Amino acid sequence: MPELPEVQTIVNGLKHTIIGKQIIDIGIVHKNVIAEISPHEFIFTLTGKIFKHVMRYGKYIVISTNDHISLLIHLKVTGWLLYFNSTTPRGKYLGVYLGFHDGSYLSYHDKWRWGRLYLLHPQRISDIPQIQRLGPDLIKGEIDAREFHTSLSTSSSTVYRWLLNQRNIAGLGNIYVNEGLYRAQISPARPCNTLGEVEATRLYDTLIRVMTEAIHYRGTTFSDYRDISGHPGQFQAHLQVFKREGQACIRCGHQIVRSKLGGRSIFYCNKCQF
After folding, report:
1. Count helices and strands in the chain by DSSP H and E runs
2. Contact status, residue 79 vs residue 108, Cβ threshold 8 Å
3. How far apart are CA 170 and CA 153, in angstroms?
4. Helix pair angle (197-216, 145-153), 10° resolution
5. What does CATH list as the number for 145-268?
6. Is the separation of the CB atoms in 164 and 137 below 8 Å?
7. Ordered DSSP codes for 115-176
8. Which one of the listed residues 15, 111, 209, 264 is annotated catalytic?
9. By the 8 A CB rule, do 59 and 4 touch?
10. Which is catalytic among the residues 3, 6, 179, 199?
11. Is the distance from CB of 73 to CB of 108 less than 8 angstroms?
12. Is residue 229 within 8 Å of residue 13, measured between CB atoms?
């Protein structure tokens, strides 16, 4: 699933390609990716609108128009967006495309078709239900290290599961939680309320550094994720623990272990993560 760095990479690309463009053509290949309204209503409502702003909220993309309508996109596990200067979008996994007045296109593709596109009419972005449920965003500075520690200290959950909960921290997923915990030398199975202020601050700073680095490398690609130009991310070459089971820990040389926690795969060094 695209996580914060992948979604931010897509948003950065959209800001440079679709702002100020008017939608004159919409094609819906797979109607199930349109959520809550009919394909006809989706086309009728969005045609003629001009994209004005693009923002990321957790793993959601929100594109606002000149008519106070917002297109909210959740890529889920295998969704991706592509921008074309002139070629009409096509492909096995094409779900929806938007054609602009200058002949360019934005298309949504999804192998599993779990992702969803919503059309919303909020007075404010913060009124969108999906956004209201999100916790603070580390990259946006919506929580500081002291607040982060305070939130952790109230939970007896494992720190791994707590970080994955989007109501606690928005945008994190399995890749960057594993990487952050490894680099901060904290065990995924550690109860949150056992972390002291120094450890919590180290984890806070590490998560921000990991995601900032991943954004620099345009995200992580193992299978489906692409940026809007169709290029894979490059951060997988810089991962220190994720999917490295059986290899040597770069700190202590001990073997990286893979196991399950809460039904998800975790990767860690049981010698130098405490």
Report:
1. 7, 10
2. yes
3. 18
4. 120
5. 1.10.8.50
6. no
7. -EEEEE--SSGGGSHHHHT----TTTT-S-HHHHHHHHHT--SBHHHHHH-TTTSSS--HHH
8. 264
9. yes
10. 3
11. yes
12. yes
Residue 59 is among the residues annotated as catalytic for this protein: yes
Active site (annotated) includes residue 3: yes
What is residue 75's three-state secondary structure? coil
Radius of gyration of the chain (CA): 20
Phi and psi angles of residue 260, each rounded to the nearest 5 degrees, phi first: -115, 140
Q: How far, CA to CA in Å, does 259 sit from each of 210, 220, 256, 266, 267?
A: 22, 21, 10, 5, 7
pLDDT tens-digit profile of 100-150? 999 999 999 999 999 999 999 877 888 888 899 999 999 999 999 999 999
Domain 4-132 top-level CATH class = alpha beta
Sketch the domain layout of the chain as residue ranges: 4-132, 145-268
Q: What is the largest CA-CA distance in the chain?
A: 60
Q: Is 245 a catalytic residue?
A: no
Is a pLDDT exceeding 90 seen at residue 97?
A: yes
Q: How many CB atoms lie within 10 A of CB 75?
A: 25
Same fold yes or no, 4-132 and 145-268: no
Which of 2, 5, 89, 188 is flagged as catalytic? 2
Q: 5, 49, 56, 59: which one is catalytic?
A: 59
Residue with token string 């602009």: 100
Please give the model's pTM, rounded to 2 decimal places. Answer: 0.97
- What is the per-residue pLDDT across 213-270, written as a single tens digit (0 to 9) for each? 999 999 999 999 999 999 999 999 999 999 999 999 999 999 999 999 999 999 999 9
